[in-house]
């Protein structure tokens, strides 16, 4: 077999192994080792595996992963998400479908201090959904809003997916974080516009009853400030330090984790056992992410050795398909994969193949990364996988609420994400202008 044939056989083998249920990291390591052994020999494969383990995980940058994960877990247990929702509920209660819009913007703010979409889905399904249904919104719409807006957690910085992309594409994490701000704000505004449109054109989808007779909790100025200050302080500490040039991404993660720990301790939401459990969970998430990055790095080097990326670049860029034809096919593939597997795994499988083609096409890799993250996040809302949907279902535990209802509630927000993705393709500067300053 030629190296090219071995490369294609390895990709096919990876898909088969994943379909059979093998863990994605193990499958990638296995087919990569097999591919290098076939192209060269076992000794080269062993040496390359050792080099990958050394090169891909020794960077100081990787300390950012556990720090941001820990920060996200700490703010989740300290009820910062509920406070954020309460603040926006107070601001939006007089607006049509105001609680839906409050949920979107509360999720956007919460995303800026967590970076994990599933955390947002868990918190707001317990905070926003009961409050919205109490005020006459349908459960389908309430859960759909939470599912849709939870995707902001992986787009608005700090974002775990942005970190993974930056590592695989060899881009600056700080620039990727900056690139996520414009698209995150765009998506928030499009979601809010979608809610207003639904409230005016499809009232039965949004409201169980048009007359809201339930009382709102009275939030005094002192209470408003008490709930706002911790959120704003953490945002200023992390994002202000990062974008002001005072902290690099790893230092910003450390400062954010320390700030979140102080908030949790002041609120007495960290008994010893809880803190230990959070540390263990942080370790588990970090190890799984870093292992997947190691496997993806080995897979990428095997593909480069086989010549598959070069062959694909010639196929897409020197035929009638062209660069933007490749981009459309790539984004559609990601959306389809999102129906089947989780976000990080999608990126680790497709990016080693797609990045060389994108680079040969002359695409800005920062912009390409933003498009990738938005397309990947679509998978959180689409059946049959729809991880955010299943997270909400498990968090609410309402026997009258089916998974199908949540998927139907999220459908308008899937459409809103598709519109936003088209806008980002047509206007790349939305993603790149801050990153290029």
UniProtKB/TrEMBL annotation:
Spell out the coiled coil positions from the record: none
Q: Which GO terms describe its cellular component?
A: plasma membrane
Q: Which UniProt key words apply to this protein?
A: Cell inner membrane, Cell membrane, Membrane, Transmembrane, Transmembrane helix, Transport
Residue stretches spanning the membrane: 6-39, 60-81, 101-129, 141-165, 177-199, 229-246, 252-270, 282-304, 324-353, 406-427
Question: Which is an annotated GO molecular function term of this record?
Answer: transmembrane transporter activity
Q: Which domain of life is it from?
A: Bacteria
Q: Which InterPro entries match?
A: DctM, TRAP_DctM
What is its quaternary makeup?
A: The complex comprises the extracytoplasmic solute receptor protein and the two transmembrane proteins.
What is this protein's function?
Part of the tripartite ATP-independent periplasmic (TRAP) transport system.
The family line of this record is: Belongs to the TRAP transporter large permease family.
Q: What is this protein called?
A: TRAP transporter large permease protein
Organism, by scientific name, is: Roseivivax jejudonensis
Lineage, broadest ranks: Bacteria, Pseudomonadati, Pseudomonadota, Alphaproteobacteria, Rhodobacterales
């Amino acid at each position: 077999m030629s190296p090219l044939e071995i490369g294609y056989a390895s990709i096919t083998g990876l898909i088969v192994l994943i379909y059979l249920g093998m863990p994605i990291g193990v499958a990638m390591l296995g087919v990569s080792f097999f591919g290098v052994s076939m192209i060269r020999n076992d000794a080269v494969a062993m040496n390359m595996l050792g080099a990958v383990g050394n090169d891909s995980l020794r960077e100081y940058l990787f300390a950012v992963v556990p720090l941001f994960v820990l920060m996200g877990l700490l703010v989740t247990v300290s009820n910062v998400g509920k406070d954020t929702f309460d603040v926006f509920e107070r601001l939006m209660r007089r607006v049509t479908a105001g609680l839906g819009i409050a949920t979107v913007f509360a999720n956007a703010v919460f995303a800026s201090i967590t970076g994990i979409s599933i955390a947002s889905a868990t918190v707001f399904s317990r905070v926003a959904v009961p409050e919205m249904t109490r005020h006459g919104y349908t459960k389908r719409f309430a859960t759909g809003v939470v599912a849709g807006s939870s995707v902001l957690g992986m787009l608005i910085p700090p974002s775990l997916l942005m970190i993974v992309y930056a590592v695989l594409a060899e881009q600056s994490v700080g620039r990727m974080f900056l690139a996520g701000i414009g698209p995150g704000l765009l998506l928030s505004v499009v979601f809010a516009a979608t809610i207003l449109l639904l409230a005016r054109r499809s009232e039965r989808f949004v409201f169980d009853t048009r007359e809201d007779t339930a009382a709102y909790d009275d939030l005094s100025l002192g209470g408003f400030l008490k709930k706002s200050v911790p959120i704003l302080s953490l945002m200023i500490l992390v994002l202000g330090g990062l974008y002001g040039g005072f902290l690099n991404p790893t230092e910003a993660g450390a400062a954010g984790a320390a700030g979140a720990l102080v908030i949790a301790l002041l609120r007495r939401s960290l008994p010893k056992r809880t803190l230990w459990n959070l540390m263990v969970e942080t370790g588990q998430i970090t190890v799984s992410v870093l292992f997947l990055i190691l496997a993806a790095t080995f897979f990428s080097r095997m593909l480069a050795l086989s010549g598959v990326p070069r062959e694909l670049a010639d196929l897409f860029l020197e035929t009638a398909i062209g660069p933007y034809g490749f981009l459309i096919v790539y984004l559609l593939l990601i959306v389809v994969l999102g129906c089947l597997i989780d976000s990080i795994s999608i990126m680790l499988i497709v990016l080693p193949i797609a990045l060389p083609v994108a680079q040969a096409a002359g695409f800005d890799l920062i912009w390409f990364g933003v498009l990738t993250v938005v397309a990947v996040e679509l998978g959180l809302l689409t059946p049959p996988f729809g991880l955010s949907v299943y997270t909400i279902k498990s968090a609410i535990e309402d026997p009258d609420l089916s998974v199908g209802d949540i998927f139907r509630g999220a459908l308008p927000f899937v459409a809103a994400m598709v519109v936003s993705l088209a806008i980002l393709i047509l206007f790349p500067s939305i993603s790149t202008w801050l990153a290029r300053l």
